[in-house]
Specification:
The chain is an all-alpha fold and 217 residues long. 72% of the residues lie in helices and 3% in strands. A two-stranded antiparallel ribbon has the order 1-2. The chain starts with a helix and ends in an 11-residue tail after the last helix.
């Protein structure tokens, strides 16, 4: 039992390290300059498949914190940590969405898996769009504003310049919903394509057997 616990901690550390590498160095530019498609949340999904809710959340926190320590804050101004806060919320959203979707779609059939990941992608996309609407985008642009209330003309002008849309809510939807759907679909495709294969290899290698579960510990 102790050996398996050590092995589990080792795998969590390895997944977190891989997440940092993916988060830091493998990014695909999006047509909005400050948005990048990166695949570090695949390791969060894999940690969930391999161990469960708690371990996936740990990987999400560790990879984000380690990336912050290595690269430092990615935005300037009054709120330099908002980019990593956004990344952490996204990763934890995948964990929550996976837990919910796994309760709904329990079959191992490919149709059920596709439906599960489609649900995850949609949920995460909606959560991140709402989070950016509620607080994250104004923070990223250097201003505290909840749901766009009291947003300065300068900040609204920056958003309008990016989208050509004068309504704050519609501009946020235009900015983030397609982006998160694309990013999430890319990660889900990888999970469907190679997730089960990697899962079998790790389970056989570590002899985890029935210790893997999908319960919230």
């Amino acid at each position: 039992m102790k050996k398996k616990s050590v092995l589990k901690l080792t795998v969590i550390a390895i997944l977190s390290a891989i997440g940092v590498v993916l988060m830091s160095y493998f990014q695909i530019p999006y047509f909005i300059e400050f948005l990048k498609i990166e695949f570090s949340d695949f390791v969060v999904i894999f940690a969930y498949l391999l161990f469960g809710f708690k371990e996936a959340a740990i990987v999400a926190v560790v990879k984000t914190g380690a990336d912050l320590l290595i690269r430092g804050p990615q935005t300037g101004g009054a709120f330099p940590f908002v980019a990593h806060l956004t990344a952490l919320i996204a990763s934890l959203s995948y964990v929550l969405a996976l837990w919910i979707a796994s309760k709904i779609f329990k079959s191992d059939k490919i149709q059920s898996k596709i439906a599960k990941y489609a649900t995850v992608v949609l949920m995460v996309s909606l959560i991140m769009t709402l989070a950016n609407y509620a607080i994250l985008t104004p923070l990223f642009l250097g201003e505290v504003s909840f749901f766009g209330i009291g947003l300065s003309d300068k900040t609204m002008g920056m958003i309008t310049g990016l989208t050509g849309i004068n309504d704050f809510f519609l501009a946020i939807v235009f900015l983030y919903l397609p982006f998160n759907l694309l990013k999430g679909s890319s990660i889900a495709f990888i999970a469907v394509l190679i997730g089960d294969t990697l899962l079998r290899l790790y389970r056989n290698k570590l002899n985890l057997g029935d210790e893997t579960n999908e319960k919230v510990d």
